[in-house]
Design brief:
Layout: H1 3-6, H2 12-23, H3 39-42, H4 47-50, E1 68-72, H5 78-87, E2 92-97, H6 100-108, H7 110-117, E3 122-126, H8 136-143, H9 151-167, E4 176-182, H10 193-203, E5 204-217, H11 223-226, H12 229-233, E6 240-241, H13 242-251, E7 255-262, E8 268-270, E9 273-283, E10 296-299, E11 305-307, E12 313-315, E13 319-321, H14 324-329, E14 339-342, H15 366-370
Parallel strand pairs: 1-2, 1-4, 2-3, 4-5, 5-6
Antiparallel strand pairs: 5-9, 7-9, 8-9, 10-13, 10-14, 11-12
Helix pairs in contact: 8-9
Length: 390
C-alpha cells in the first residue's frame, strides 16, 4: 500500500493492522513512548516480548492483588504478564487483541512465563476492543464452514455474529474488576469510540475501575493530519483532545474521574500541536435508584465549592442532603476523606425510604438529622485524651 493510499481515512484500521503486524516481528521506535517499569516485574518476561512492546504509560499501580483484569490491545503480552504478577496467584488477566501476529507472540510464551512465576493466570483472546462481545476466533471457525459469495451470505454472517455475541460473548457483562489499556484507544476509529466506552463500562463489575494510558492532543487535529494513515497508526493523529477523553468516560456513565498521570513534556509536536501521555482513572458504580435516608455530607475544603458527576454542588462547610447511594460513594476512593458523613439519629430502613430528587442540591437542616423533638441538654464534654493531654 502506498503512502498516498494510507492517507485515506478509510484505510486507518488497515494501516494500524499492517504496521503492528510488522512491529510484532521487529522493534519500531516510533511506536514507543519510553516507560519505566519495576525491574523485578520484567525478569519473568522473555526478551522477544520486551523488544516489541509499545505503550505510553503505566496503569499497573492502580491494579490490586486478586483482581480480574482486562488488558485492551494487549499486543505482545508485556503488560498482561506484568499484571499477572501484580494480581498474583488469586487474580486473573485477560488480554484482548485482534492482530494475529501479536496474539501468536503473546500466546507462545504463556507456558514459559507460568513456569517462571509458579502459576498460570493469563489468557489471550482475539477480538476488537470496541466490540468485546464478538469472539473473532469463534467467528473464524464458523466462517470456515460458511463461504460468503453474495448478499445472502453477508446477511448470514451478520446473523452468526449476533448469535455469537448473545451465546458466547468474548467478555461477559459485569465480570471484570479493572480494565486497563496502554496507548490503544487512539487507534480506534472515531465512529466506534462511543461503543468502545460503553463496552468498557459493560464488562466492569459495579465498583470496578478503568485505568487508561493514552496519547492526547492539546488542540483539535486538522483533517489533513487525521487522514494520514502513518500518523494515525503511530498513535498521533487519532489522539483524543485532552478534555474529550475525560468527557467520553463521563458520557459512558463513569464517575470519579482522575488524571493520575500527566507528562508535562510532549512526546511529539506536529505542526505546533503537542501530543503527550496521560493516564486516566474512572469508576463504575453510581447507577441505581436514589432514595432518601436522611443523610448529608459536609465538604471539608480547601476549595470554596465542588460539584460531582451528578451535578450535586457541595459548598465548603455546608450540610448538603444526598441520597443513600451518593452518601456511600463519597466515603469510598477516590473521594475518601473529602467529606464528613452525617447520619440521621434515627436510621431510615431501606424499605421505608422515599425517593430522593438528585436533580437539585439542598441543605439538610440539622433538625432533620437530629429529629424535630430533639431537646437534649448535656454538660461540657472532656476534650482531653486518656493521658491528660488536651
Amino acid at each position: 500500500m502506498s503512502h498516498a493510499e494510507l492517507q485515506s481515512p478509510n484505510h486507518s484500521e488497515e494501516a494500524v493492522h499492517q504496521r503492528y503486524a510488522k512491529a510484532a516481528q521487529r522493534p519500531e521506535a516510533e511506536l514507543c513512548c519510553a516507560v519505566e517499569y519495576p525491574r523485578h516485574l520484567l525478569d519473568a518476561i522473555p526478551a522477544e516480548i520486551l523488544n516489541v512492546d509499545y505503550g505510553c504509560g503505566d496503569p499497573t499501580p492502580y491494579v490490586r492483588s486478586g483482581d480480574t483484569v482486562l488488558d485492551l490491545g494487549s499486543g505482545s503480552g508485556k503488560m498482561a504478564y506484568i499484571l499477572a504478577q501484580v494480581v498474583g496467584r488469586e487474580g486473573r488477566v485477560i488480554g484482548v487483541d485482534c492482530n494475529q501476529r501479536m496474539l501468536a507472540l503473546a500466546r507462545r510464551h504463556r507456558a514459559i512465563v507460568a513456569e517462571r512465576l509458579g502459576y498460570a493466570n493469563v489468557e489471550f483472546r482475539c477480538g476488537m476492543i470496541q466490540d468485546l462481545r464478538l469472539d473473532l476466533d469463534r467467528l473464524t471457525q464458523r466462517l470456515a464452514c460458511n463461504e460468503i459469495r453474495d448478499a445472502a451470505g453477508w446477511l448470514h454472517l451478520r446473523s452468526m455474529e449476533g448469535a455469537l455475541r448473545r451465546e458466547s460473548p468474548l467478555v461477559a457483562d459485569d465480570s471484570i474488576d479493572c480494565v486497563v489499556s496502554n496507548c490503544v484507544l487512539n487507534l480506534v476509529r472515531p465512529e466506534d469510540r462511543t461503543q468502545l466506552f460503553r463496552e468498557v463500562f459493560r464488562v466492569l463489575r459495579r465498583g470496578g475501575r478503568a485505568v487508561i494510558s493514552d496519547i492526547v492532543a492539546d488542540e483539535d487535529i486538522p483533517p489533513h493530519l487525521a487522514n494520514d494513515g502513518r500518523l494515525w497508526s503511530g498513535c498521533i493523529s487519532g489522539a483524543f483532545r485532552e478534555d474529550r477523553l475525560l468527557h467520553a468516560f463521563e458520557e459512558a456513565g463513569f464517575h470519579g474521574l482522575e488524571v493520575v498521570g500527566w507528562k508535562m513534556r510532549p512526546w511529539r509536536v506536529v505542526e505546533g500541536i503537542e501530543f503527550r501521555s496521560i493516564t486516566v482513572s474512572a469508576r463504575k458504580g453510581k447507577q441505581g435508584p436514589c432514595i432518601d435516608r436522611g443523610q448529608a455530607v459536609i465538604y471539608r475544603g480547601p476549595l470554596r465549592k465542588v460539584a460531582d458527576d451528578d451535578g450535586h454542588v457541595f459548598r465548603r462547610g455546608e450540610r448538603v442532603a444526598v441520597c443513600d447511594k451518593t452518601f456511600r460513594l463519597l466515603q469510598q476512593p477516590p473521594y475518601e476523606g473529602m467529606f464528613e458523613p452525617v447520619e440521621p439519629y434515627d436510621q431510615v430502613p431501606l424499605d421505608q425510604a422515599p425517593p430522593f430528587d438528585c436533580r437539585r442540591s439542598r441543605i439538610r437542616d440539622p433538625r432533620e438529622t437530629k429529629g424535630r423533638d430533639y431537646h437534649l441538654s448535656t454538660e461540657g464534654s472532656d476534650c482531653c485524651d486518656p493521658d491528660g493531654r488536651c
